[in-house]
Amino acid sequence: MTFEDYKKLDEKALDEPLQALEDTFREEYNKYLSDINGYIDDIYNEYEDNNGNIDYTLLIGTLLLTRTKGNIKNINSSLQSFKLAELNNFFSTVYDAGFNGNKELFEKEIGQLLNANIDKVKKNKFISNPIAGATTAERMERNKNQLDFKASQTLENSLQENKTATQTKKEVKKVYDSDFNNANLIAEAKGHRIVEEGKLALAAAVISQGIEPTKTWESMEDSKVRPAHNLLNGTTIPIDQDFISENGGKGPAPGQMGVAADDINCRCFLSYNIN
After folding, report:
1. Would you place residue 249 in the very low, low, confident or very high pLDDT band (cuts 50, 70, 90)?
2. What's the domain count of the chain?
3. What's the Cα-to-Cα distance from 145 to each of 67, 135, 152, rounded to whole Å?
4. Higher model confidence: residue 242 or residue 256?
5. Closest to 140 measured CA to CA, from 198, 101, 86
6. Burial, 229: exposed, middle or buried (Cβ in 10 Å; 0-12, 13-18, 19+)?
7. Domain range holding 258?
8. Distance in angstroms (rounded) separating the CA atoms of residues 22 and 14
């Protein structure tokens, strides 16, 4: 099995579902941003003067502003629930694609069928495991709390500064664009880790059939690869041993090194050598 075989498989298992997830997220964000824009229009329709300014001292004590911020928080809660459900579906899809695709590669290499199927209990346990001390749900909750604060603060600042409705909508959109990017980063980082976990599960199945593969750390060999992973690139070790990084991480595969300096945004992957 070649570097390109594994690279193509990883791209198919992760990149294609990731693009579909991003498209789904963007559609949902746009829907909720449309609702928020409607709430912003209500404020300007009610309190904008003939010069296009907002009398913030008059607005601040009204139920309209309080109700608008409450509506935004409700939107954020709905958005969080949607993202969490979609992320869990995405992680499950990625695991299955990585496992089944690698199974085909392994069977082609060894010339025999593997007695290995997806263990749903182990899969779900791995998906729920934390990365850098936080589960996906915990990260999403933290992001939602930040979104609540930033969206409300941005709206109030824009109103205080007498910005137009169009300007206010743009400022609020920037906040949601940042949250959108954070959600996609979570999906990519954990999705990559899940693909590698599927490979490790398959490697264990290969060992159970009397074959002893080794594993090799493969980087993407471009300028984005962190120096410690450039040093690991090409390192081959027995399947049951851990890689050790100069960043302080130690673990069985990329994305599973146990420290953020190694795991966050890592794009490296494993190839396997079956003698």
Report:
1. very high
2. 2
3. 18, 16, 11
4. 242
5. 86
6. buried
7. 213-275
8. 12
